[in-house]
Amino acid sequence: MPYRFTTGDIKKIVKRIGLQKIRDKVWSGTDSNGQFLQTYIHDREDGIQIKTGTAKRQAQQMGFIDLEDMKDFLNNNKRKR
Predict the structure, then answer these.
(1) What are the start-end ranges of the E strands in the chain?
(2) Who's near 42: CB < 8 A, 6+ residues apart?
(3) Is the pLDDT reported for residue 79 higher than 90?
(4) Which of 36, 42, 61, 67 has the CB geometry, 3.0–4.6 Å to 3, for a possible disulfide?
């Protein structure tokens, strides 16, 4: 079963990690370990679903193991990276 994310979900994740919006679609910054992270979010509306391949690429760019790891981070507010 593929994990589905919306644009709003990805925005919540990048804000929790500590990334900031640099340009129109570019979010970058450093995480708590000092690792530089950068990802692209095509910002339309918060409820629009992202294709699975795009979500996999964003998960990789943000340092997650896979989509399951990113979904767990989104659902568990107390979890640290």
Answers:
(1) 5-6, 20-21, 26-30, 36-40, 49-50
(2) 7, 25
(3) no
(4) 67
Domains delineated in the chain: 5-75 (3.30.920.30)
- Encoded tokens for 11: 């925005």
Please state, in angstroms and rounded to a whole number, the distance separating the CA atoms of residues 31 and 29.
7
Q: What is the rounded CA–CA span in Å between residue 63 and residue 44?
A: 24
| pLDDT of 34 over the 70 cut | yes
Q: Tokens for 61?
A: 């760019």
Q: How far apart are CA 47 and CA 40, in angstroms?
A: 17
